[in-house]
Design goal:
Keywords: Cell membrane, Membrane, Transmembrane, Transmembrane helix. With 334 residues, this protein is mostly helical. It is built from 13 helices and two strands. The protein has a two-stranded antiparallel ribbon.
Length: 334
């Protein structure tokens, strides 16, 4: 990571730590709802980061990451609701179980490439919500009604609201996972992952165990997304099968493409983008109907489609790639 990038990252981290503490001074600007919204952006960024490790850095296309997100969320929900497990202990459990599911799914997926692999993961995304509704699992998963939880309370008597603590909790987890991903990609294993992405036949010829790296990367990617799902269960305090539909996988993929495929910073930008659009589409639709008097129902998917077309035309390498390109051109011209 370039020096200027590290400085910007550190500045943003310090800003993220300080801003919630200003809530007593600016209660409207730094409200609990806005902190909760930022927490959901952080969770989405972790999920997109997991997808990026698989698709952006290993070259395997997935349309089924909503399934791993559901595995993580339900693991956390069941542990907290049925076994009264502390919320922080659900993260490693969700990561381990999601890794196992991702690794096992990656084994048969070794025989698939390109759109065939995408179709297989698409089938996974469609099947998991239906499995969660299965009547024999209702006692465990709550069936179509889902599971209602309680938000995590600040530990050690910290003078923070639930949403403030949730924000810091999600931020700490994201920073750890971001650091782990950066170190992984800078290691020998990371270079092997990217070699498989660029030219898997040459990587195989050079002695890289492509089968092992593909399945393990699938597991790691699923573990990241499962952790995001576990955080989502604590943040929203509710899980239900219909929350993990195939369209959630599409949102992750849109966030990845918009932020920047093969860019860790792009994962964060992509997570922020998809949550912002998801939460702003309804408000924009209401504005069009009430203020402009137009009978036009603007769904989140319509906004996603329009913005995706515009951004791909203006910034084909994603927002982060586009910003880096503009900065390079400015440095050359100066």
């Amino acid at each position: 990571m370039p020096a200027f990038s590290r400085k910007w990252v550190m500045a943003l981290v310090v800003l993220a730590i300080v801003v919630p503490l200003l809530q007593p001074l600016f209660p409207d600007l730094v409200s609990d709802y806005r902190l909760f919204l930022v927490s959901t952006m952080i969770i989405a960024a972790i999920a997109v980061l997991g997808l990026n490790l698989l698709t952006g850095f290993n070259g395997q296309i997935s349309l089924g990451h909503s399934a791993f997100y559901a595995v993580g969320a339900y693991t956390a929900a069941i542990l907290m609701d049925r076994l009264d497990c502390p919320y922080w202990l659900t993260l490693p459990a969700a990561a381990i179980l999601s890794f196992i599911v991702g690794y096992l799914f990656g084994l048969p997926a070794l025989r698939l490439e390109g759109h065939y692999l995408a179709l297989a993961t698409f089938a996974l995304a469609l099947s998991v919500p239906q499995i969660l509704k299965y009547k024999w699992l209702e006692d465990l998963t709550g069936g179509v009604q889902g599971i209602v939880l309680s938000k995590p309370e600040p530990p050690f008597g910290l003078p923070l609201s639930e949403d403030q603590w949730l924000f810091y909790y999600c931020l700490i987890v994201m920073l750890i996972l971001y650091w782990a991903a950066a170190n992984l990609l800078n290691s020998r294993s990371g270079r092997a992952m990217m070699a498989i992405r660029d030219y898997h036949i040459a990587a195989d010829t050079m002695g890289i165990d492509t089968s092992l790296y593909k399945t393990v990367t699938f597991g790691i990617s699923a573990a990241y997304t499962g952790i995001a799902g576990a955080l989502s269960a604590s943040a929203v305090a509710f899980v239900a099968p219909d929350s993990f539909s195939f369209f959630l996988s599409i949102k992750f993929l849109i966030g990845l493409v918009v932020g920047g495929v093969g860019s860790l910073a792009g994962s964060v930008v992509g997570g922020i983008f998809y949550v912002l659009v998801d939460n702003s589409a309804q408000a924009l639709s209401t504005y069009i109907k009430s203020d402009l008097g137009l009978q036009f129902d603007l769904s989140a998917y319509t906004v996603f489609g329009i913005l995706l077309i515009v951004l791909m035309y203006l910034m084909p390498t994603g927002i982060v790639g586009g910003v880096y390109g503009m900065m390079r051109r400015l440095r050359r011209s100066s």
